[in-house]
Amino acid sequence: MDILIFFDINGTLVLRDERTDIPFSTAIDTLLGVTDAMKGVDTSARSDKDVFLEVLERNGKAFSNGRWDEFLRLYIKELEKFAATDVWRENVDAVWFVRALKARGYILALVTGELSVGAEYKLKKLGIWDCFLTGGYGEDGLKRFEIADSALAKVKKMHERDFKAMYVIGDTVLDIETAAHLGARSIAITTGSHSREKLLAAGPDYCIDKFREVESLLLR
Predict the structure, then answer these.
(1) pTM over the 0.85 mark
(2) Shortest CA distance to 161 belongs to which of 31, 4, 39?
C-alpha cells in the first residue's frame, strides 16, 4: 500500500507519565553526579540531545563528544535495567492499531526525539518495534523538522516509490506542524502533553482520544 504513516512515541504509542523517562534522567544524574538534573526541563516534542544540551548548560557543563559517549553508555545501562519493568506501557489502543496497519500493508515509520536505542527498547517492550520500517531519531537532528526530513529520506531510500498519502500521528502541536512541513495529513491524539483545545487550535486534520476513532479512515 502506497501510504506512509509516521508515529511519535511518548504520549502517542507509549503512555507518558512520570516513569516514562526514568532511564534517561537517571543516566544524566549519574553522569553529572547530581540529583534531579531534569527538574524543570520541558522534554515535550524535543530531541533527547537537545534536552541533554540544556541540562548541561543548567549545570555549568560544556558539551563534548566524550561526555556524550559516556552518557550513552550510562543510558544504555539504565535502559537494560528497566527493560523488564513497567516503565513503558501501551498508550490507549496503540498496539492493536499499529499491528492492524502493518497487517494491511501500510508503510510505518517513526518521527521522534527519542534516540534510536531508547525507541528500540520502548517499542520492543510493547512488541511493535518490528512493525516500523525505519525512523528519524534524536541523533538525526536537534529539532523536529530535521528529524522528520531524515525519516522521510530514509524511507524513500528503502522504499523507492512515491506515496499517494502521508500521515503524521502525534500528541503535540509540533507533530501537527511537522505534518504540514512534510506535506502530510495530521492526526493529533489527546493522550499526551498538549490539551485537546491546544491541539485543535493548531488545526489538525483529525483529533482523536484513541486510535479506534480513525479505524474507518485507515482500516476500512
Answers:
(1) yes
(2) 4
Alpha-carbon distance 99 to 13, whole Å? 12
> Mind listing the pLDDT tens digit for each residue in 151-189?
999 999 998 778 999 999 999 999 999 999 999 999 999
The span from the CA of 42 to the CA of 44, in Å, is 6
What are 166's strand-pairing partners?
4
Dist CA 95 CA 178 (whole Å): 23
What's phi and psi for 191, nearest 5 deg?
-100, 10
Residue with the three cell numbers 489538525? 204
What are the backbone dihedrals phi and psi of residue 20, each rounded to the nearest 5 degrees, phi first?
A: -55, -40
DSSP codes, 126-163: HT-GGG--EEE-TTS-SSHHHHHHHHHHHHHHHS-S--
Q: Are 113 and 119 in contact (CB under 8 A)?
A: no
For the beta carbon of residue 159, count every other beta carbon within 10 angstroms. 15
Instruction: Report the C-alpha gap between 150 and 68 in whole angstroms.
Output: 21
- Compute the distance between CA of residue 49 and CA of residue 194 in angstroms, rounded to an integer: 22
C-alpha span between 197 and 207 (Å, rounded): 10
CB 173 within 8 A of CB 154: no
